[in-house]
Amino acid sequence: MLSAILGLCGSRLGNRPDFVVRIVARSLPRGRHDATVTEDANAALVVIDVQQGFDDLEYWGPRNNPDCEANVAALLAHWRRNDRPVVFVRHDSDEPQSPLRRDAPGNAFKDVVTGAPDVLITKQTNSCFYGDPDLHQWLQQRAIKRLFLCGITTNHCCETTARMGGNLGYDVNFVLDATHTFDRGDLTADELAKATATNLHGEFATVVSTRDALAA
Questions:
Q1: How much is the average pLDDT of 122-141?
Q2: Sequence-ordered list of residues with C-beta below 8 angstroms from that of 25, at least 6 positions apart, any chain
Q3: Using omega within 30 degrees of 0 as the cis cutoff, is the peptide bond preceding 29 cis?
Q4: Phi, psi at residue 17, to the nearest 5°?
Q5: What does the pLDDT look like over 32-45, one tens digit per residue?
Q6: Quick check: is 55 in a domain?
Q7: Can you give the pLDDT at residue 36?
Q8: What is the pLDDT at residue 41?
Q9: What's the pTM?
Q10: 156 dihedral zone (left: phi>0; alpha: psi -120 to 50; beta)
């Protein structure tokens, strides 16, 4: 199951179906944390920083996974059809040159982020759990124990939120092919996505595909 799911994510992210499979297979003990997705009517979809400022490739550099936004839209539609909780997170950068700063056009959500969420979290840090209002408190008040994470970027705000969510005791599902990132230093975006999948799966979260999240 794990190889099949991560193979699908790999095909979305790098046009090489086996690239995430190879990395994760080397990193995990055999049989650990199968990526089976089960139904939970109260699972929350957390849409992280899907903002127009990330379209500024002159600022951020080359990206990966062109299917990210379409997958986010599919997840949103599925969650709304099933009347499940939806969380939007927006990064209001306090860096003067950032395309995500509050007074910049790029602060706005991309067109795929439609409708009203159950709650909007704004933040200036990587973790969605350090935003306003308090995400952990909001989830606890609604007895939400399971999260599906998607958004931008894979290895920064999405990964940080997954790590902290796992530490707080949530059942975190990281929808890898509904995230994307950018080249950084000597590493390509695909390589960074591999590292995120390896770091998270079986430790902080379960890495899943959009297809399997839609079956949940």
A1: 98
A2: 2, 3
A3: no
A4: -55, -20
A5: 445 556 678 899 99
A6: yes
A7: 59
A8: 86
A9: 0.87
A10: alpha
118 contact partners, CB below 8 Å, separation of at least 6: 44, 85, 86, 87
9 lies in some domain: no
Q: Distances from the Cα of 22 to the Cαs of 69, 91, 172, 201, 214, in angstroms? A: 25, 33, 22, 13, 25
Q: Return d(Cα 37, Cα 112) in angstroms, integer.
A: 24
Q: Is residue 2 part of a domain?
A: no
Helix (H) or strand (E) holding 10: helix 2-14
Q: Whole domain around residue 87: which residue ranges?
A: 41-143+157-195
112 lies in some domain? yes
Establish whether the linkage from the previous residue to 125 is cis, with ω within 30° of 0: no
Neighbours of 207 (CB within 10 A): 27
CATH number at 116 reads 3.40.50.850
Q: What is the DSSP string of 67-88?
A: THHHHHHHHHHHHHHTT--EEE
Determine the Cα–Cα distance for residues 212 and 29; give it in Å rounded to an integer: 22
- On the question of pLDDT at 1 being above 90, the answer is no
CA distance readout (Å), 32 to 17, 25, 143, 171, 178: 21, 10, 27, 15, 23
Task: State residue 13's pLDDT score.
Answer: 44
